[in-house]
Design goal:
This protein is of the alpha+beta class. Helix content is 20%, strand content 34%. The protein contains 1 helix and 3 strands; from the N terminus they run αβββ. It has a 3-stranded antiparallel β-sheet with strand order 1-2-3. The protein is elongated and about 40 Å long. The mean pLDDT is 83.
């Protein structure tokens, strides 16, 4: 995630004292992944989860996750 956007998301979580789960499109090398980011009320990025299996037409664009981002 872009550092500036991560800071902004962390500031929102802190200001509202909430956990955030944000869906993003993540690029790693030449592959795109559908990813969920988990941010705690302190604004800390707890982790991320990549969608393991793109469905139907998604397979033409998105990469397969490998389970390494499952907590």
């Amino acid at each position: 995630m872009c550092p500036a956007r991560h800071r902004a998301s962390g500031e929102i979580a802190r200001a509202r004292d909430v956990f955030l789960v944000i869906g993003v499109i993540e690029r790693a090398g030449g592959t795109l992944y559908c990813t969920a980011l988990f941010i705690d009320p302190d604004g800390t990025l707890l982790g991320k989860h990549r969608k393991l299996m793109p469905t139907a037409m998604e397979r033409l664009i998105w990469g397969f996750g490998d389970g390494s981002t499952c907590p």
